[in-house]
Fold this protein.
Amino acid sequence: MCGIVGIVGQTPVSQSLYDGLTVLQHRGQDAAGIVTISENTFRLRKANGLVKDVFHTRHMRRLQGNVGIGHIRYPTAGTSSSSEAQPFYANSPFGIALAHNGNLTNFEELKSWLFNTARRHVNTTSDSELLLNILGHELAQSEALNLTPEDIFKAVGKVHDRVRGAYATVALIIGHGMVAFRDPNGIRPLVFGKRETVNGTEYMVASESVALDACDFEFVRDVAPGEVIYFTEDGKIYSQQCAQSPNYSPCIFEFVYFARPDSTIDKMSVYGTRVEMGKKLGEKIARDWEDLDIDVVIPIPETSCDIALQIAHELDIPYRQGFVKNRYIGRTFIMPGQEMRKKSVRRKLNAISAEFIGKNVLLVDDSVVRGTTSEQIIEMARAAGAKKVYFASAAPEIRFPNVYGIDMPSANELIAHGREVEDICEIIGADELIFQDIEDLVEAVRSHNPEIKTFETSVFNGRYITNDIDQSYLEKLDAARNNETKESTDKNADSIIDMHNEGA
């Protein structure tokens, strides 16, 4: 999971790109990059680290130009090689730079086609660079020196025909402008907005609406699945649906965990959907677990706070902040390597003993993925004096790998894979364990946009929306992860990339 931004402005855009990336930092903490266009030349800065550490004054001064894109990266399978940082650049045709959030599922097929047929070389194992070169190849099929909007729409339409998986993408084409497009299922989010200035209208695209807010852009709408929007350098805007059979199916895990609560994605308030998750889960606990003697509801900060507050309201039980979060520790879910995640939990959270001593507590988290964090937090609650520790998850059991850009591709790492709830409960050390039902989760999110008929929910039910994932694919992915990155993940920050790095 990563974050992307892009701006076509009337004045220099580097500071706004920086600000946009900063508020999207929750989507990736491994690397950051910005590329702008000035005097018909790309100006690029990218490196490993947080946004504030990658860009210094000297870098910002060099990032001149009124058009630019940016990217923040979260590493997949533990890799954090600087060669995988985005945006990527290709010099043909015209000069193209691209940033991408998602993961291409037919990577090997595309890589072979690109080399043997398109005769284009990729210098990394990132599928984002692969996507860049496929787009470049399709754009090169036009013999015109100046691309028309129709040329761009045709090229991205060919990309849609050839590429499978999840991709929210923003690209710059020298001499033309900025292109934003989204995969035909709309798995990864992408929004755009505008702002009026004395010099004219400026446009911005981003992974979440919160980036538009931070840069004082007015939200216009989401980029539709399969849609292409072309922003010319002189401020004109063109859009067209370029997928043959678009099927709106956004990733539901964006609402469970990744997105900021103050964002709106696909016309759905992230905060509002989390309140609904809490309402549904609270109703389930009141209905099916009425025998539990719960004294207090305590969230595991921060994603679950809104959820836990609504659960407490439904149960008419006190809500308390029992854990203090160290805000200078990154999100443990997206840290590279299991050992780093384990070490970070204790540094990240500290219990307030007064809220636990002698009480039966209901801990609420957004999800249970590997179980490592849940187990350690339950131990902390008991050490702080809790009599009993019940655990509730706002998401259903995560039993299947994700192949669309979230770092949980190995089924063996998922605590719920092949286990019943009672087994999971015993492993993490809870007195009782309660999961949200998938029907309730879908209904909670959809309640804010009934137009969405389906969601990407493969991690819960194993149904992959792109219909191209089979057991053989998952076994290859698992083998690649185990063979290439397992040992190096926790020993070397520049660990070997996995079979097909999720380019987002």
User: Anything to note?
Assistant: Residues 53 and 99 are 20 Å apart (CA to CA).
